[in-house]
Structure formats: structure tokens, C-alpha cells
Design brief:
InterPro entries: DUF3558. Helices cover 24% and strands 28% of the residues. It is of the alpha+beta class. The chain has one domain. Strands 1-2-6-5-4-3 form a six-stranded antiparallel beta sheet. A hairpin with a 4-residue loop joins strand 1 and strand 2.
Length: 173
């Protein structure tokens, strides 16, 4: 299995786990269908993706064509040690925070928004990091995923936070 396939499979597992992790929320709220109003991360301008450290020409708009009805996903190669992903969901910020598949939450700031960075419980190498924050359409997540057989040159949460700040003005409030 190639590097990109393994990384995308891991990304798909995390996205699906995030959707399934809502059992920790009282009443198990369900996200509304995305519809046309949900933010499409692939609509972020190329210059913003480049400013965030990724190559806009490497855009991948989904995860192997899998229908993730509560998510819109877009991923780019950084031409370095990591992939940059932006995910949009109708899940609430509380549902993201309450996901049992996430750990090590740290408060961060993205532009003027309160945000959190966090790790996946199944990532003992600390090779990936998500930064999540609310928008009027749900939650946005900026993800840094270390490529297979690569070593992170900087802490992934630092890179994800910098990328989120570079993208902030292009993302819905």
C-alpha cells in the first residue's frame, strides 16, 4: 500500500471516528445534512493554500470517493513532510471536544476565534494534529498529517495552528 493510500485511509478512519464519537454527548445529537450551504474547503483560493504551506496543484477533494455525509474534506501536499487538510462539518464544537477518539486538547487562537488543537488517541507517535474552531456553518478543522516514512520537522500542532491562521480570512465565520 502506497504512502498516500495509507495516509488517506488513516484520515478516513479519523473522520469517520469523529462522526461516530458523538456517543459521549448526552442525547447523541446528529449533524444536519450538509446540503449546498456547507462550506467546501476546496473553494479556498490557491494563494491561501500556498500561504498556508501547501501546494494548491495537489488538491484532493475527497477521501477515495467515500460519501462522508456530515463532512466536506480537501487535502493538499505540502511538498515537505506533511499533508494539509481542511475539513468542514455540521457537528458542533462541543461534539468535536467530546469525541473519545481525541486527546491532549490545547487552547489556541485562530485569528480572533477561540480554537483547540488536539491529537488522535490512535497516534502514539504524535505525528498528526487537528485545530478545530466554530463557524456559522458548524466546525472547521485544519489538519496536519505527517507523511508515512517522514519525520516531522516541527511539532504538527504548531504547523496546523500556523496554517489555520494563514487560512482564517478565507474561512466562514
Amino acid at each position: 500500500m502506497g504512502k498516500s493510500v495509507r495516509v488517506m485511509a488513516a484520515c478516513a478512519a479519523v473522520v469517520v471516528a469523529a462522526g461516530c464519537g458523538s456517543d459521549a454527548v448526552a442525547g447523541s445529537p446528529t449533524a444536519a445534512p450538509l446540503g449546498d450551504a456547507q462550506f467546501d474547503p476546496c473553494s479556498i483560493p490557491d494563494e491561501a493554500i500556498a500561504a498556508a504551506g501547501a501546494d494548491p496543484g495537489t488538491e484532493q477533494p475527497d477521501i477515495f470517493g467515500v460519501d462522508l455525509s456530515e463532512w466536506n474534506v480537501c487535502k493538499w501536499d505540502s511538498n515537505s513532510w506533511y499533508y494539509l487538510g481542511v475539513l468542514s462539518t455540521t457537528y458542533s464544537f462541543d461534539q468535536v471536544r467530546d469525541n473519545p477518539q481525541s486527546r491532549a486538547f490545547q487552547e489556541v487562537v485562530v485569528g480572533t476565534r477561540d480554537a483547540v488543537s488536539y491529537l488522535d488517541v490512535n497516534d502514539p507517535d504524535l505525528s498528526d494534529c487537528d485545530v478545530a474552531f466554530s463557524s456559522s456553518r458548524g466546525v472547521l478543522i485544519v489538519r496536519v498529517t505527517t507523511k508515512v516514512n517522514e519525520v516531522s520537522a516541527s511539532p504538527p500542532c504548531d504547523v496546523a495552528t500556523r496554517a489555520a491562521n494563514a487560512l482564517d480570512s478565507y474561512l466562514p465565520r
